[in-house]
Design goal:
By secondary structure, the chain is an alpha/beta fold. It has two domains: about 140 residues, CBS-domain (Roll); about 70 residues, Histidine-containing Protein, Chain: A. It is about 35% helix and about 20% strand. It has ten helices and eight strands. The strands form three sheets. A three-stranded mixed beta sheet has the order 1-2-3. It has a three-stranded mixed beta sheet with strand order 6-7-8, covered by helices on one side. Strands 4-5 form a two-stranded antiparallel sheet. α3 packs across α4. The protein starts with 5 loop residues before the first helix and ends with a helix.
């Protein structure tokens, strides 16, 4: 099975700044390129942090209300330092959460979810910037056509990986939703077929009506049953 990697999906023309890039220059870049964050790199193009709109807004939030109607915020020391910063080095969040070019889309999505970020700078083994992967980039896997999905499931998953003949299981794909109907040799193959199909790029959902010729699910007793049998002896 072939999965599109971060290098297949990432943007290679990346807007970036250096440690000494000024506050206003960063704000201009965000507006000009319609992005919400930029990686910060050193002189060797290694990613050292990320500056986002939220980092810049701390300065705005720290200002006194001209009308004197709003309460004065009392930020934490780290937030206060960012509010007072004037260059990327002081404004950025670091170390940056990054991705590697060889990661799958699933790996990148899991890291984004875990760290609550919308995009990841992509770096090589030396930490140098190679691209940027965003949520929108990852969603491109779901633009894959139904015919391509069906071909991969029939040819790669069923035939080459599991040895199931093409005429044994009918595969239907509509808008990324996969339906399987047919007969497999062993009952234990059914959940495996479903799981592998769910992992195919572009698949939204899998439903299966699969019969089996041999029920091998009772061949090995569950651990608790084995324990009870041992105690009985």
């Amino acid at each position: 099975m072939w999965h599109r990697t971060v290098s297949d999906l990432m943007t290679t023309s990346v807007v970036k700044v250096h440690r000494d890039t000024g506050f206003k220059d960063i704000a201009k870049l965000l507006a000009e390129y319609d992005v919400t964050a930029v990686p910060v790199v050193d002189d060797e193009d290694r990613v050292v942090g990320v500056v986002s709109e939220a980092d810049l807004l701390r300065k705005e939030a720290a200002q006194l209300d001209p009308a004197g109607l709003l309460p004065t915020l009392r930020p934490r020391p780290a937030d206060r330092a960012k509010a007072e910063a004037t260059t990327a080095e002081g404004l950025m969040s670091g170390p940056a959460v990054t991705a590697r070019p060889q990661w799958t889309a699933v790996e990148a999505a899991q890291v984004m979810e875990r760290h609550h970020v919308k995009r990841l700078p992509v770096v090589d083994e030396t930490g140098r910037l190679r691209g940027l992967i965003s949520r929108a980039d990852l969603l491109r896997v779901f633009l894959r056509g139904d015919a391509a999905i069906r071909e991969e499931i029939s040819g790669e998953v069923l035939l080459r990986t599991l040895g199931i003949a093409p005429d044994a299981v009918a595969v239907r794909v509509v808008d990324g939703r996969v339906s399987l109907e047919g007969t497999v040799e062993r009952a234990s193959l059914v959940p495996l077929v479903v799981r592998l199909c769910q992992g195919v790029d572009g698949v939204v959902d899998v439903s299966a009506e699969l019969r089996h010729r041999v029920d091998d699910t009772d061949a090995v007793p569950p651990p608790d049953a084995s324990r009870r049998a041992g105690l009985a002896l």
